[in-house]
Amino acid sequence: MKKKWLIRLVFSVLTLLIVSILSFMIIEFAPGSPISRYADNPKITSADRERIIRHLGLDKPTSVRYFIWLKNVLRGDFGLSYMTGRPVLTEILARLPATLKLMLFSFFISVAFAIPIGIYAAMRRNSLPDVLISFISYLGISLPSFWLGLLLIYIFAVKLQLLPAGGQLTPWFDSSAFPLPVRPAAVFWEHLRHLLLPAATLSFGNIARWCQYLRSSLLETINENYIRTARAKGLNSRTVVYKHALRNAITPLITVIGLNMPAFFAGAVITEQIFSWPGMGQLFITAVFARDYQVIMGITIITAAMVLLGNFLSDILYAVFDPRVEYRG
Amino acid sequence: MLKKYLKVILLVFLASTILVSCQRQEVSKPLVWGIPYDVETLNPLFTEMAVETDILNCIFSTLIKVNDKQEFVPDLLAEMPQISEDGLEYSFTLRQDVKFHDGQELTAEDVKYTYEMKMAENNAVPDRYIWERIDTFRVTDKYNFKIKLKSKDVTWLENLAYANAMIVPKHILEEEFNAGGNAVSKGGDFSRNPVGSGPYKFVEWKTNEYIKLEAYDDYYRGAPAIKEIIFKVAGDSNSLLAQFAGGEIDIYDRAEANQYGELLQLKEEKDIEVYKYPSYVYLHADFNLRNPIFQDKKVRQALNYAFPKDSFIENVLGGVGIAAHTYIPPWSWAYNPDVKKYDYNPDLASELLDEAGWLRGEDGVRVKDGVRLEFTINTNTGDSIREKFEVIAKQEWEKIGTKVNIQNYEPGTLVGDILQNVKFDIIVFAWKSGFDPNAENLWHSQQRPDLFGTGQNYIGFADQRVDELLEAGLQEQAREKRISIYREIQQILSEEAPCIFVYFYNDLTAVPSGLKNFKPNPTQANNTWNIWEWELES
Fold it and tell me: What is the ipTM score, two decimals?
């Protein structure tokens, strides 16, 4: 057993290494460079450009730079961002809380809605509500998030002016303006009202996908022999579904959700952009446009590590939920 | 059970909503300026973004400023500098009542230190353009200093008015410089906690959210009327407009031309003012003169004649722009009103191509010596106006017997590869010029980056007369003589047609109608140049 864990660990490290080499090469081959931004700046001379290249350490060959980068990463140093001159980890840590907040919130909303809706739809297969749920789900799966986001902003922020169009807190929000007893509620609402629109945008697609997964896997399970046995024993259908069918039907959903885990870290590029949410997705897209190799590499590697971790965790959860599965590495 | 929870949640929700509506009346709101993305640094030594200038204008001072009428006025100086007969030596006298935000007096030593920091070997400053031209910098006493240039350059002074010539405090940066092993970093402490001598003090910077400033009561022009200013990161133009409409930001600067209609509509409903004013930014479509097709002047002229500039401005821009005929805008003192203007005339365009020997082949595309008149237009993705330019150009140019392809790239690729490595046939993008008409970097033959490694003459334009005139323009102090120099340059450029000068942008800024003394400034000084004068009447 221990050996299998070890093998899995070695493979994970190897995967990370390959990911890092590939991403380093891809970024390297991509057109443009961190100094492209100066091409249309009349005040930057060729001498300036060479000086900046030297300062950024870009005058060394790619392979040398890769090993320098790797050596530093192993010591926990992801280098300095070309854009801001601050450590990549500092930049990431400045964005991570906002991303975690948004992603976890929308994750809980998604699960809270997807599971009951999925069960409801499965139990009333082909009824009018089921057809309606399917219809809305397909809408949710196919609607691009930028469109939904802009629509929500238009309705709730511009027309009704109920909720803010962007940001995660009002810059001049001052909780001490509220009397002590209601202060927690005020702070809570201040956070919540900024979360509602971006979380709704993110969750709509997730709910749609996840409830359909659950619906179809529940329907499969319900036709299994042991469910029929349970029914034959005289258990009411509620108990059958919740106690027996759901536990088995939920495993595929766990895999799907597990694969979704890295997004908690990487954020949602488009949604964050639309709602000017100060998270990782925004950092990544800015870094790509600025060709900030250091930040791109930092985020890519940490996200890759998260993917491996997510897979690993969902395997464990699998074993917990499904007694038939034994963890074998 | 579930119902009980729902009830509780609903109650909390209701209570909160009521609270929020109370909150709106209680808390006094600062002036909120929307910015599209976070800035990279607040250390003026390293600044290179326009948005940074907006903020740095509040925190720091420059020796001189360019005002809204585009005249030089002293800022930290007691009066404009004296320039020696030979145009090489500048004598400066500082005001004696300027203090940094920490109470330390600003003196000539700080100015000299700013120069030294720009030139320090290990400081990764982006450009040293202004400072490299300095031969000697002599501090004569606490408030006086003399700068001698290596060679005469009448455009040099203008650069002192912009963000990358803002004066930094020696007593603070010295520590960081020494502690950092003779280097100040773009991400260092001063970048995140700047101390300047401008009208506003730095308070807080929350990465990718906002930057908060408060009025500096000891500002030498007197305490600013608006007590708190917040620069809020609000996302792209759609988000900025939405947040402006929703009242989350008070000022929407640099609105897109195609949002003009929406802003005017908003003006009907809200107490806002929309400013529309000319800028120095112009859109142009450059011919790559290394391509044999475009070495023929008649082809370049024909394509100029075949593009309906006026209807483009009218229909695509909704009139938010002014036709360009040269690189100098019509409101500049150096503008030449008599340049050749290429009014839309497809028949004349066809004639020119016929004359040049480009004759229509079987498929309607012209051919000369076995070469088809076929080329590609490039621009950056995500810019609907440039994309429409391409579509209209393609339609119109194909009517006169060319074959036009369109290929667009993400901005980093367009600039970093297609432009920098001069891989284009025709490339569409915009330049922002200074208000001085010098444009050596664009038109001098020694500024072709593919040959000399420097300059922005990506077109590959080379004309001996233009070279001479550009050099003369930098030496000549007298305005009258400079006018005739730049008029001749424009004359030659319009005849040679190395590009299509499409239009000069109009800048759009929406502000609360109670904002007094807001005076838009189209130069690189930006609109916050006089923020100390602003007042907000509710």
Answer: 0.85
